[in-house]
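Notes from the 1:1 (GR / supervisor)

We went over the backlog. Supervisor wanted to see one worked example end to end before approving the batch request, so GR pasted a single chain during the call. The sequence is below; no edits were made to it. Supervisor asked that the structure be written out right there so they could see what the output format looks like.
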Amino acid sequence: MGSVRTLQDLSRLFIDEVGPIENSWFLLPESCLVRDGKQFAHKAGSRPVFLLRVAGPNSQVIPRSTSRPAGTFHGSHRRCIPSCKVSKDGFVKTDLRYSVLTSALISDYYSCSEPEDSDLLKALGLK
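Structure output shown during the call:
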């Protein structure tokens, strides 16, 4: 086991040992976000996704967009941990959910946790 010096180190260790944490953000490859045979965006690279629910081998995530002003506004995480990839203001369509393999949600893709007082959690009925 590696040394734990920061909250980020502890989060990554927890994900590797226990599994992904709901209400967290992960930076997943665009190719993971496919529903009904269609990719969320026809782009290469990665996208922040919100982990809504873990259900065994599959997890439910919600993609975030910085280019489509639709859904719930979600501000950037300005004062977050160093690994945070939610660095620009964007939008989340709370009803647009994707199923991904839970095994894809590894610590290398972990970004951060959503702040407990966020409008996104309220819009999802989680607070």
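Supervisor's comment: The two ends are 35 Å apart (CA to CA).
Batch request approved.
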